[in-house]
């Protein structure tokens, strides 16, 4: 299976990091140059300041998906350049026999956000299982995509008009070219972004999206600042954890009603074992 890593020309440090990660398993990858927001500006594509990094990231993924859609490989693995791989990742990055038949997307990472899945595994391999998504999810740093899905998905999609982050586009049923698309999660995950796994003090790769946003002169949304100001705002902040928990439980109940004949579960997808030093 072909493997791509999306990497900015200005970040050779991240490229070296990915070479070390794949080198642990004797695996190689092809570098795909990420879209720099400055290049979009030079082409006359003017980006909203509060979404500049995310839109540039979306263009990078969509450009690569178009290449994959025009290629010959039935499945291709895509990685962003700040992921860490589990010790058994190689078992899933060579052949494709473990991928569920007819799969369009297989998410390889965990983003430490709640997911909602079909309980019965679609496949089992090397101590891991794949489960079908029943709701949208977050994160696009490591996934496998089918050629036909890549071609259909990227053909007419414009990040400027979609106004969504690439993960919200890829892993949201309303954005799929085929509503019956088969999208799965590998569990435990074999990849995780450094910013998700490690506390801020231990991170060595700052977010490029955050850097772009700061360079472009982003300012906080005054509506959000007002929302959390004053006594009412402090109450909102103090109760946010409970309200988020309640929202997740209510979503589970709604999904259980929608998929009344499907056994399902919700969880924060775990990351596999990693003994290699950072």
From TrEMBL:
Entries under Pfam families matching the protein: Glyco_transf_25
Keywords assigned by UniProt, alphabetized: Transferase
Any GO MF annotation of the entry: transferase activity
Family annotation (InterPro entries): Glyco_trans_25 (IPR002654)
Stretches assigned to the Glycosyl transferase family domain: 2-169
Cross-referenced CDD domains: Glyco_transf_25 (cd06532)
Keyword Transferase: yes
Name listed for the protein in its UniProt record: Glycosyltransferase family 25 protein
Species whose genome carries this gene: Siculibacillus lacustris
